[in-house]
Design brief:
Helices cover 54% and strands 10% of the residues. It is built from seven helices and three strands. The chain has a three-stranded antiparallel sheet. The chain is mainly alpha-helical. The chain is globular. It has one domain. The protein starts with 6 loop residues before the first helix and ends in a 9-residue tail after the last helix. Pfam families: KH_NucS_shadow. This is SCO5389 family protein.
Length: 130
């Protein structure tokens, strides 16, 4: 299961639309490592003029790796994080999350990062089991 949904939030979802803030809070509470990692790369991007900022440190364990994989694999979670942090996310392997400025989402740097070539160049024997 990706998220631990509080009963009140589940009831709200069953009866209609939910507030974006409530959804993001559920993601933050359910997937704290993923939320912190995305927050960190978003803050790193905001502090520089670089085209993107990324996380190159592997998660400390399988639980954290799982959180990151669940967050990046879910369109709803990923989009919620993008809106919350004001970035466009890209993902490689089990840990390399990159934050791009929304206006740079069609940039050469984004295309390189999300290309098959970029994926292959980011491989290493230590990442084969992730």
């Amino acid at each position: 299961m990706s998220l631990t949904v509080p009963p009140a939030l589940l009831r709200a979802a069953e009866t209609g639309e939910i507030e974006e803030e409530a959804f993001v809070a559920c993601v933050r509470d359910s997937l704290p490592y993923a939320f912190q990692t995305v927050g960190r790369v978003a803050a790193d991007l905001a502090a520089t003029d670089a085209e993107f900022a990324d996380n190159v440190v592997a998660p400390p364990g399988d639980a954290e790796r799982g959180q990151l994989l669940r967050a990046m694999a879910s369109d709803a979670i990923r989009a919620g994080l993008e809106r919350h942090f004001g970035v466009r996310l890209a993902f490689q392997n089990c840990h390399r999350v990159a934050a791009f400025r929304p206006s740079a989402a069609d940039s050469e740097a984004y295309r390189r990062f999300t290309s098959g070539r970029g994926q292959l160049l980011n491989q290493s024997p230590t990442l084969r089991n992730c």
